[in-house]
Amino acid sequence: MNGCEGKLVELWIGLTVMAALMQSIRTAGQKQLAHGLSSAGAAVVRYLYGLPFVALYLFWLVYWQSGAPGVLPEGNTRFYLFALLASIAQLIATALMVWLFRFRNFAIGSMYVKTEALMAALLGVVLFSETLSIIGWFSILLGALGIVLISSRAGLVAADSHTQSIGQKLSQLLFNPAAGVGLLAGGLFALTSLFLRQASLTLESDFQLSAAFTLAVMVLMQTLTGVVYLALRSDQDWRAMALQHRTCFFVGLTSVLGSVGWFTAMTLQPVAYVKAVGQIEFIFTLAIAVLFFRERLTAREILGMLVIIAGVLLLLLAGH
């Protein structure tokens, strides 16, 4: 590996870690949103309040930074198609996540959503002929196992699970509506990442500007969609946002910082590898739960964290 390649490896890893940390902080911030804000409204906050920060970041890249090109990348049909598909996939996946709250086995569905990295690897190979090493696959599987262990916090099986046979427990995990919805949401989140990577790669700009322009277009599309939806369906959400605009701006800023990391890393590296490293988000989430919400870790959650760390280290030591 030459010096340039080494710097790019360090860059995408650093960006992914930053993205995972910002996503965890943003999620914690969203939990503080209250005062009548609906689930749809909380989702729109990410895009609406993040849009000004995206615009500033893109403006800086185009006009202010040293060697700035002074002109936006020129989009093409393929770019706008993939950007639109990514926007739609993310919005539907988010709606499915909200819908999961309706199910009794919400925790099971959430676990399937968190297999996004594995889904991204599978879909990337099938749809875009991406190739992964054996070590890469093993790392992703370790991460998925760690997430399953960590997901025990929410109680993956019913309270009466001690009376169930192994077959009944397996059936509960595999064959229930929440599992199906969670799997679909995870697949759509994976497609979102794959589509945005394809969109970014169609642009004839450097990787940083390509990623930023892709992010700006997607956030604009999602903001317009969200604003129209809330205008037609929910006046209360607008009042709720006005009452807590500082928290809304905090969620918007951390969301954009995370997205800048994700989008740029995925422009540099196949989605599966980025998502594999990004699974450390769940470690950050647990750390926030312990440090700020005074929750206690179980032995199973600690084991899950160690498994995720082992998977990430394995991928990094292999030189990806």
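(the above was protein one; protein two follows)
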Amino acid sequence: MMTAPRHELLDRLPKVRGELIVDAPLAPYAWFRVGGPAEILFRPADAADLTNFLAHKPHDIPVTLFGSGSNVLVRDGGIAGVVIRLTSAFRACRVEWQGDNALVHVGAGAIDISVARQCRDSGVGGLEFLIGVPGTIGGALRMNAGAYGREIAHVMLQAEAFDPAGERQRLTPEDMGFSYRHSAVPEDWIFVSAILQGRRDDPEAISKVMAEIESNREDSQPLRTRTGGSTFMNPPGLKAWQLIDAAGCRGLTRGGAMVSEKHCNFLINSGGASAADLEGLGEEVRRRVKQHSDVTLEWEIRRIGRHENYQVSLGGLKGGDA
């Protein structure tokens, strides 16, 4: 299915069974609620549709995966080429029992919080931390997401991804190259599923742990605002929020962007912010922390796409940062 109006790029793309949407707004899907459109948005019908698309897509057309929009900042100029957003076909979650051990087969498009709740209802313990992780399983694999002392590296048994040619790749934990908020899997591979390990446990006990995590998050994080989660990674042995606070950045603003008063490692769209406001404010925070503590903060939030003055021509992209 192709959605009007037509676009020159459509004529170069393979036929699909899913949707190809021209100039598709991404801001409604992004937690910050900012950012420009996707030149083309592809919503694959299923894994076969996705692998066929990747196998037959011209090599010069860039592809970007867009998950739940929780840990990403889409720049104001939008994203060139094709943006892939996984559909419900990639959100299945089922539990396979092997004695008291649970194998949780889950699609990469499944929301972490939903997986945590389904595991609770099925009596699967060990994955409670996912209730505190915004985003999808695919995003958790990509950045080794975690919360409250646990991370995806602790529970992943196997992952599957498609490489740029559409070939299915099966990955072990060793293949993933996990480190703090990072995996070594090539950026242009697209995760499609994973097997996570859990254990049999009492649903009431699981519920109690999850409730404590949710309460702690509610008390300490600005959850009911337009934010993208933790902005910067914690430097070794340090806390990013403490460095930001010490540098006098709590409550700092730029346009409609603001450093959260509640947790200053969160940036907030307080109303009318642009992506440039948010990114510029983040860079100012980095500058002040470097000046105050001589520590360089590294972005945890992914910044993707083109700045507003980016131009596209038939010969490719010109100017700005991709």
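Reviewer note on protein two: DSSP finds seven helices and 21 strands in the chain.
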